[in-house]
């Protein structure tokens, strides 16, 4: 009987040690996987003004209020968010833009931009509840930033320089623009590469 207890005790310790080794191996693999799947920021396209360059200066009429001045020194940073009434991803991101505008109001103003026919955009502003944001229509603005895909966002700092920009499809990608500004890097990918 005593031998059976000793054998079962030894087996339990062997199993426990195997579980501990397995747990450490699993934790290591999770760490490796986390490094491989690093957070992706907004997809930065290599066109238009680069991060650190002066943003093109524009003064444009807004569908929702007075003229909007873009570029040059400002009291707040500006998130220039390019949208379209026919873009489903843009519509999905609008509540996120509204939330970011409220939570970051101390340092950020949001300007929505598009091009096309004014009546369509006025209807879009009303339907989506965007009356609280400056909304500009300008083909020249899109061409200056070389916008090819939507939704696209450009973060312009208080000095009038492009802080970060990119194609944004999620809250994380939008917030990566704010993170890039805080870290004074062109993008989160650049920061990760610098750390490696």
TrEMBL record:
It holds the Pfam family Redoxin. The chain crosses the membrane at residues 6-26. Pathway: One-carbon metabolism; methylamine degradation. PROSITE patterns: THIOREDOXIN_2. Signal peptide: none annotated. Gene3D superfamilies: Glutaredoxin (3.40.30.10). One of its GO terms (cellular component) is membrane. The keyword Chloroplast does not apply. It is a single-pass membrane protein. SUPFAM superfamilies: Thioredoxin-like. InterPro entries: MeN_DH_accessory, Redoxin, Thioredoxin-like_sf, Thioredoxin_domain. This is Methylamine utilization protein MauD. It comes from Zoogloea dura.
